[in-house]
Amino acid sequence: MNAVTGLRLPPTLVFDHPTPLALSEQLVPALVAEPDNGIESLLAELDRLDTTLAQGPSIPLEDQAKVAERLHALLAKWDGARDGTARATSPQSLTAATDDEIFDLIDRKFRR
Predict the structure, then answer these.
(1) What integer pLDDT is reported at residue 92 of this predicted model?
(2) CA distance linking residue 91 with residue 54, whole number of Å
(3) Nearest partner of 101 among 73, 72, 81, judged by Cα
(4) Closest CA to 73 of 42, 103, 98
(5) I need a surface site. Which of 41, 58, 77, 103 has the fewest CB within 10 A?
């Protein structure tokens, strides 16, 4: 649950909160962040990503390459959005895109 929630949960969590209701009352406030200007939650997500990427050696090289390609695509997208030079979708970004991202792109382009 630590990896899924991004929280540091005590090993005794399920014993301290033995029912689903008690457990949810403990976890929901920690999981549902108060609205902010976005930067704190964005930086927290980047910290979680950094922690996950630190496991790199345990990830097969082929998968590391896929992750690197995706990170490059995200950075290019971020840079383009910041300076107003966002490019049209390139074949490389389509290769790195998830199925959901491709369907979102199709919906945005062809939705009436």
Answers:
(1) 56
(2) 28
(3) 73
(4) 98
(5) 58
